[in-house]
Amino acid sequence: MVIILFIRRRLATNPLSTQMCIAGTISGSGDCLAQYLSHNQEWDRWRTARFSFLSSCFMAPSLFIWFRLLEKVKGNNKSLLLVKKLCIDQLCFSPCFNAAILFNLRLLQHQSAEKSWDLLKEDWFNIYATSLKVWPFVQVVNLCFVPLNYRVILNQVVAFFWNCYLSYITQKPIDHIEQFY
Q1: 105 backbone dihedrals φ, ψ, rounded to 5°
Q2: Angular region, 133: left φ>0, alpha ψ -120 to 50, beta rest
Q3: Which of 13, 71, 89, 162 has the fewest CB atoms within 10 Å of its CB?
Q4: CA 17 from chain center: how many Å?
Q5: C-alpha–C-alpha distance, residues 109 and 140, integer Å
Q6: What are the tens digits of pLDDT across the range 93-145?
Q7: Spatial separation of the C-alpha atoms in residues 125 and 159, rounded to whole Å
């Protein structure tokens, strides 16, 4: 209970930094679970660090800004407004966001921009298609019931499982990844 009160206070006073910390923690935990489920012999702490860094320094700030921009979309009919926001989110933001995540993740794996682009082209469609089976439902709940400062957190809670999937898909063996130690 003390942790929840602390988080609520932090969200009220410093929403972005709080969401960044929570996102990095949840994302790193999701990667740890993905590594465990894939029976990795040894925990790859740098892989977990990459996921945590990307989530806290790119994903959380992007979502923080995105949800505030999405709030500016207005309409008289609540149902139509929800559909409008959902379409903007899933058809405009989500494809670009997924592409940026995949590209940046590969760069953090020390891939060249060219190799990162090639891998993005290889993985993007399947990941985006799968995301359409998950995220529209999450966003309906988010947009209808969740206060603005908590939306990134709800996304990150669901992203715990989504990141397990992303981690599994994007961590397939790649020719010559240099380990960053």
Answers
A1: -60, -40
A2: alpha
A3: 13
A4: 16
A5: 33
A6: 999 999 999 999 899 989 999 999 999 999 899 999 999 999 999 999 999 99
A7: 18
**Using CA atoms, how far apart are residues 162 and 5, in angstroms rounded to an integer?**
27
Q: Encode pLDDT of 46-96 as tens digits.
A: 989 998 999 999 999 999 999 999 999 999 999 999 999 999 999 999 999
Q: How far apart are CA 166 and CA 149, in angstroms?
A: 25
Distance between CA atoms of 98 and 121, rounded to whole angstroms?
12
Which pLDDT value is given to residue 179?
40
The encoded tokens of residue 45 equal 């702490």
Q: What's the Cα-to-Cα distance from 100 to each of 37, 42, 68, 107, 172, rounded to whole Å? A: 26, 28, 19, 10, 18
Residue with token string 């794996």: 109
DSSP helix, strand, coil percent of the chain (3-state; round to 5): 80, 0, 20
